[in-house]
Write a structure and sequence with these properties.
By secondary structure, the chain is an alpha/beta fold. The protein has eleven helices and nine strands. It has helices at about 15-20, 55-75, 85-95, 115-125, 150-165, 175-185, 210-220, 230, 240-255, 285-290, 295-315; strands spanning about 5-10, 40-50, 80-85, 100-105, 125-130, 165-170, 190-195, 220-225, 260-265. Helix 4 links the parallel strand 4 (about 100-105) and strand 5 (about 125-130). It starts with a strand and ends with a helix.
Length: about 325
């Protein structure tokens, strides 16, 4: 098997770095430069989570502090890490042997009713926006509800498309996902599911229905398989392992996802499967793929190429 390249679509590490007062190079988080050594190239979306314990405005202020801390840490590590905003910057950073870090936001309620904050987020380099997280918000209904997008939520999706922020359907309810994909179809632009497993493999409310996967694929989007053990299998009955991660990848591939599927592990935001304690454990999944006769080329597409091609085309 060839040396792995890795491009992951979701982690909460920026949030953890700030609150633990540690740096990206050496820390006790799932993601660190030290844990990235198995990969010849590595890119990562860093999604700043809107803390469920805070109100919408407090989440905005928290985001500003976290983003500032993250930027200063990357500046400290500029010989090894680059914060990228565009496809060109991504390609340049990787060609220079640097880790490429892309900023994102998880839970759009932090705009607190102010659509002009989306312009600020884009200017700051946020390139995807996970619309929802849990319960009902000013944006709409999350996976644990039966509600769709609010009018503000629909306006948010439209403004994202206008600015070049990619809407993310992970955590959205079925109805909210339908609403997001309807708007995406009207605009003829892609969305992503940054960290969503296959509902047909394990029927958890957080997982992606086949019809949604099909529409994301048709729009040219990507879907990242999560390592969240409670979304992989019934963990109490069958402890999650790398084999369960593979099962979700394999299902998406059987559903036409060769150019779509990747990983959005949810590092530093979830409990991981047995034996997968950090970023550095992902080769275990690649080894399972190889045992199932996945070619080196297909493994590279899933680990890196699909997310890279999407970013080159859509990060602006």
């Amino acid at each position: 098997m060839k040396p792995l390249r890795f491009f992951d679509s979701h982690c909460d590490t920026a949030y953890e770095l700030y609150h633990r007062e540690v740096g990206l190079d050496e820390n006790n988080c799932h993601v660190s430069l030290a844990n990235a050594t198995p990969y010849s190239q590595y890119a990562q979306y860093y999604a700043v989570w809107s803390n469920r314990r805070l109100d919408d405005e407090a989440c905005w202020q928290d985001f500003l502090r976290i983003a500032d801390y993250f930027d200063r840490d990357i500046e400290r590590l500029s010989a090894k890490v680059a914060r990228v905003r565009t496809g060109h910057e991504l390609a340049t950073a990787l060609e220079q042997g640097k880790h490429a870090a892309i900023l994102a936001v998880e839970d759009a309620r932090l705009i607190a009713g102010d659509l002009t904050r989306l312009d600020i987020l884009h200017e700051m380099g946020v390139r995807y926006l996970t619309l929802l997280w849990g319960g009902n918000s000013c944006i709409g209904g999350s996976h644990d509800t039966e509600n769709g997008l609010t009018e503000l939520g629909k306006q948010t999706v439209r403004r994202c498309f206008e600015l070049g922020i990619i809407p993310d359907v992970s955590h959205a309810s079925e109805k909210s996902t339908d609403d997001i994909l309807d708007i995406a179809t009207q605009y003829g632009k892609p969305v992503i599911a940054s960290h969503s497993n296959a509902y047909s493999v394990y029927a958890h409310s957080r997982n992606l229905r086949d019809r949604h996967f099909d529409t994301i694929r048709a729009l040219g989007g990507t879907v990242g398989v999560s390592l969240c053990r409670s979304h992989l299998t019934s963990h109490k009955e069958h402890p999650a392992t790398p084999e369960h991660v593979f099962a979700h990848v394999d299902y998406y591939l059987s559903h036409g996802g060769e150019d779509v599927v990747g990983f959005g592990a949810d590092w530093d935001g979830t409990d991981l499967p047995e034996g997968m304690e950090s970023l550095g454990a992902m080769p275990l999944v690649a080894e399972i793929m190889a045992r199932h006769n996945y070619s080196d080329e297909l493994i590279d597409k899933i680990f890196f190429g699909n997310a890279y091609d999407f970013a080159i085309k859509n990060l602006k």
